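From the pipeline queue, job 12 of 40. The input is one protein chain; the requested action is below.

Action: predict structure.
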Amino acid sequence: MTQRTRIKLCGLSRPEDIQAAVQAGADAIGLVFYDKSPRYLTAAQAGLLLAGLPPYITAVGLFVNASPDAVQDVLRQAPLGALQFHGDESAAQCAAIAALTRRPYTCALRVKPATTAADLLECDRVHRQASPYFSGLLLDTFVDAYGGSGKVFDWSIVPAELAPRVVLSGGLNVHNVTDAVRLVRPHAVDVSSGIEREKGVKDAGKMQDFVRAVQAADAAQAGHPGR
């Protein structure tokens, strides 16, 4: 039986965006706590946004090189279910914050042109050994800035044995996500700029179209099992 691809809609910053993501069928929503991002939220803003979040939708906090105290400060005001480390955090640093906060986490690996399948497997191994809270790698495209890249990397480097436990990100949108899911078969996909009307402002129609495109890929896979 083909597993359904989970969907995270990231960079939400308005109540109407949260509502649209829920209505579209997102499994998780992402809130950004990196103050250089146009999608940045304070802990207080995030707390208000999450107050009406329905059950069984995971709120994920995106952090970039944040201190343990900074993450804890956010969690005191915003009930995040999971953490996403998107900077230069080591496996040991991620593990320490996860243990302190008792939250599962994903770690972004920013894929460079020279990155190999072996590099991905090694990074996954190191994090799994470091912490029981590690959920998986989030694969994004390397750019000089932190946060989402809005660019696609070479999906063919993702090894088949790793794909079922990664989150695929980096330049995804309604036009390419069906192919991405079909070719990589990740556990989940993560999108931010690809569902925006303008930088930092989400588009409800694009959210719905993105979710439908992922569902179309899953339906196609169900009819043609095997990578």
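Job complete. The mean pLDDT is 94.
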